[in-house]
Design brief:
The protein has helices at residues 2-7, 20-40, 151-172, 176-179, 184-215, 224-247, 254-285, 293-311, 321-332, 334-344, 348-369, 383-404; strands at residues 57-65, 68-75, 81-88, 91-93, 96-98, 103-104, 109-115, 124-130, 135-140. By secondary structure, it is of the alpha+beta class. Helix 5 (184-215) packs antiparallel against helix 11, helix 5 (184-215) crosses helix 12 (383-404) and helix 7 (254-285) packs antiparallel against helix 8.
Length: 405
């Protein structure tokens, strides 16, 4: 009797006879149909919003050409906004727009072209006046002609990326012979220094990303993009690392683990240097970067420590010159790509997302490095490791002062 009862399908068992994909499609179709009907009927029963339209415009990009100022303006608000007049230094000026009527829809952008004989190194205050009387302010602190993106421009950006990315990292990797002469206890301390370096890079990239996201359009999330990029990069690298470890043969020794750690460190530093290149390229395009020898020297000193961090896992294991060169390129070359992007097609939202990706990659690398600093009783934080982490953070902080100075 009990067996017959168990064999009978229970209430609601009909869905077991329906294909699984159809069970998902039907609710999605009903939800989509309901939303479409709600929009087509103009939200029946919902009163119209009273009051003036919400106007939230932000200037994404400013380009200076001889006798002309070009602005790219994006609408962060829910309502369409029409730009009626523009004033420069309290004087109204003519302008043309694309689209031609100067109307900016929700999340869309408009390009404004202002014929104006600006003077190099002068400051300009620009006001955009909408049809409702609203005013959006922007400024040009120092007027400098925006460089054109030709072969010469990309050559300069590549050279800058080489100076501040690849060369410093490769120079830092020259510490490898010295590392192989120190004791295992010192290796743990140096790994702690590496963790400290990466911790400071993560802090610096987070602050820079939040700052970049806060200056431009907030339409795509603003500072939240930094944390979104960090989460996506962390999850992606964690998945890749798990896949790589799963494919390793159990017979592989510690040498493979050292190579994997070095690769992860290189990827994390490379994503950080991509954000660094974005900052360099965008500053160069805006004429806000003093490309002097002292600044380049500051970047070299700061990024040399990144090369040291890459070779620490090889202190007690062999590594071919080709592998070391490849790791150095992975860590440094993104600075060139970042400079190209920043100089030719800079966007604050994209920069924030990429800087966040660098943060997520660095956090994943730190997680991988923590077991390497455990002492003989399994402690992670003990006097030597704490000193190493603090020293790593202090090194990057102090060398960073050379760059900001």
């Amino acid at each position: 009797m009990e067996a017959n009862t168990a064999a009978q399908p229970g209430p609601g068992a009909w869905y077991r006879q329906v294909p699984a994909w159809l069970l998902a499609v039907v609710p999605l179709a009903l939800i989509t149909g309901g939303l479409v009907a709600f929009a087509a009927l103009n939200a029946p029963g919902v009163p119209e919003r009273a009051g003036p339209p919400t106007e939230e415009l932000s200037v994404e990009r400013t380009v200076l050409r001889p006798g002309r100022i070009e602005l790219t303006v994006r609408n962060d608000g829910p309502d369409a906004v029409r730009i009626a007049q523009i004033s420069v230094n309290d004087g109204y000026v003519p302008f043309s727009s694309d689209p031609s009527n100067g109307t900016v829809g929700h999340l869309s952008a408009v390009k404004l072209s202002i014929p104006y004989d600006w003077i190099e190194a002068q400051a300009y205050a620009i006001e955009l006046h909408t049809t409702t009387g609203g005013t959006i302010d922007t400024s040009i602190p120092v007027a400098v002609k925006t460089p054109t993106t030709g072969l010469g421009f990309f050559g300069v950006m590549a050279l800058l990326g080489l100076y501040v990315g690849i060369l410093p990292v490769l120079l830092g990797m020259l510490f490898l012979p010295w590392l192989r002469r120190v004791s295992e206890q010192w290796i743990r301390v140096l790994m702690a220094v590496t963790i400290g370096l990466l911790v400071w890079l993560a802090i610096d990239a987070t602050l820079e990303g939040v700052d970049q996201a806060g200056q431009g359009s907030q339409a795509f999330g603003g500072p939240a993009l930094v944390f979104l990029g960090a989460a996506l990069a962390y999850l992606a690298l964690s998945g890749i690392d798990s896949w790589v470890r799963g494919r390793r043969e159990t017979a592989e020794g510690e040498g493979a683990s050292s190579a994997r750690l070095a690769l992860l460190i290189s990827v994390g530093i490379g994503l950080h240097n991509l954000g660094e290149g974005l900052a360099i390229g965008s500053a160069y395009a805006l004429g806000a970067l003093a490309l002097g020898a002292f600044l380049v020297i500051g970047f070299v000193i700061q990024n040399t420590t990144e090369g040291l961090a890459i070779v620490v896992p090889f202190a007690q294991h062999s590594a071919s010159p080709g592998r070391l060169a490849a790791l150095g390129t992975i860590a440094g070359a993104p600075a060139i790509a970042g400079a190209w992007i920043g100089g030719s097609a800079y966007n604050g939202s994209v920069a924030a997302l990429l800087l966040g990706a660098g943060v997520g990659a660095i956090l994943q690398v730190i997680q991988q490095l923590v077991p390497t600093i455990r002492d003989h009783v399994g402690r992670v934080l003990y006097p030597a490791s704490v000193t190493g982490i603090g020293a790593g953070m202090a090194i990057l902080y102090l060398t960073g002062l050379l760059v900001s100075g």
